[in-house]
Amino acid sequence: MDFSILHPADQIVTIMNRLYYYGMTTMTGGNLSIKDSDGTVWISPSGVDKGSLRREDIMQIKPNGEIVGIHRPSVEYPFHLGIYKKRPDLGAVLHAHPTALVAFSLLRKIPNTSIIPDAKLLCGKISIAAYACPGSEKLGENISAEFEKGIDTVLLENHGVVVGAKDLFSAFMNFETLDYLARLEINAGTLGGEIHTISDKHMEIFKLRTSPMLDFFHPKVRTSEEQAVRRDMCALIKRAYGEQLFTSEQGTFSCKLSDGSFIITPAGQDRAYIEPEDLVLIKEGKCEAGKTPSRSVLFHMDMYEQHEDVKTIIIAHPPHLMAFAVTDNVFDARLIPESYIALKTVRKFPFGSTFMQPKLLAHEFSLKNPVAIIENDCAIAAGTSLANAFDRLEVMEYSAKSLIQAQSIAGDIVKISDAEVQEIEKVFNL
Predict the structure, then answer these.
(1) pLDDT over 90 (residue 205)
(2) Is the pLDDT of residue 209 over 80?
(3) How far is CA 93 from CA 174, 215, 350, 364, in A?
(4) Are strands 126-129 and 153-156 parallel, antiparallel or unpaired?
(5) Residue 276 gets which letter from DSSP?
(6) DSSP 8-state assignment for residue 411
(7) Helix runs in 244-368, H state only
(8) DSSP string, 148-176
(9) Tell me, what's the pLDDT at 406?
(10) Number of CB atoms found within 10 A of residue 364's CB
């Protein structure tokens, strides 16, 4: 989907729908605005169910102050106007109250953007605005003063967060990343131990990472096998996004076809709306013309070259499992029989392994060692089919969530014993 061609009212409805149904705001909480090219500000209404907004519900505030629409604009509209006045370079403002970011606002703390690279890149510098009553002139002054400093993301004391950007999708992507980061930091804190950050050196290397330049080819025939894989991949990619295993532009799926070629997700494309025609075919080291594959395409290529029996690879960022990626805690799959059967041993590799040493990392995988955690970066699941790899990814995240929840209950976690593991391996021929 080309979000930029949507009408401002449709953009607001679309993003508010995502905010509400992904649990990032409540029925009447949060507000979004877009500044049009003529200076008109389109803004969500006050007191209207955010889960069922229509385009006709969206209000307009004209440059002369005239209000147009069938409702009242959000009671927070003064601070939206104040931000646009202080920062004419911004084209959209997002305000919401996701629980993780509210938790930080209650503590007057800012999430640590050095935990994962995407947060460092997207969220930039973050500040905190002093508390004031919602809708008040004072709140608008407090928020606008922070934006006037050139800051695009402002946490509000005892309230939520405000994000400004050139357009609404960019604001949402930055907000979604910050919310993910906050949840990850909370999960890691619950798990216990020191939370590790990315060094400046590694961050500079990550910034230089781009999709590799591959020769192009023009596919002549689309087989029914390829068409089915494209369809099935899109269904699971959207499911992964719905389960918050991915964020908008994070997460990669690939699937090998019977002729040795493979299909992979594109770089920089919203996972929530991905369609079969967006996916990229890689054949004999060449890329389908007119498309840009995931930046991790070389790792996928090395995996399929080294492991004939691996048919699918998924790279994801599940917020509970990633708590193990940013701490020294070891993920032990000996929790319930199902987790050990699906995962066996979950190993951890250094940050940057997927793009700095893809051949070496690929060498460490097999169907007997099909999953891994990459420090401060991602989780990887390989399998014999899309369903097989996706199941492993889900099992890893569900198991990690169980471990974190168990950590918050008094008592010692008891793992499956060595004898019980041996019995499982014998019964299930592991």
Answers:
(1) no
(2) no
(3) 11, 40, 37, 45
(4) parallel
(5) G
(6) S
(7) 297-306, 322-325, 337-343, 353-356, 358-363
(8) HTT-SEEEETTTEEEEEESSHHHHHHHHH
(9) 94
(10) 12
pLDDT digits (tens, 9 = 90+) for 292-337: 999 999 999 999 999 999 999 999 999 999 999 999 999 999 999 9
Q: Using one digit for the tens of pLDDT, what is the confidence trace for 172-193?
A: 999 999 999 999 999 999 999 9
Token pair in block for residue 22: 């992904």
Contact, 181 vs 111, CB < 8 A? yes
Q: d(Cα 427, Cα 99) in Å, to the nearest integer? A: 44
Give long-range contacts, CB 8 A cutoff, 24+ apart: 194-200.
194/327, 194/328, 195/112, 195/115, 195/326, 195/327, 196/115, 196/326, 196/327, 196/328, 196/375, 196/376, 197/112, 197/114, 197/115, 197/376, 198/114, 198/115, 198/116, 198/117, 198/120, 198/351, 198/376
Tokens of 344: 């066996």
Say what the pTM is.
0.94
Alpha carbon of 168 to those of 35, 49, 224, 348: distances in Å? 10, 20, 38, 36
Dihedral over Cα of 198, 364, 284, 382: its sign: negative
Q: Which of 322, 304, 261, 256 is nearest to 115 (CA)?
A: 322
Q: Quick one: which of 293, 286, 277 has its CA closest to 210?
A: 293
Residue 138 to residues 31, 41, 103, 131, 354, Cα–Cα distance (Å): 18, 21, 23, 9, 48
Nearest residue to 72 (alpha-carbon basis) of 13, 36, 31, 131: 31
3-state secondary structure of 420: helix
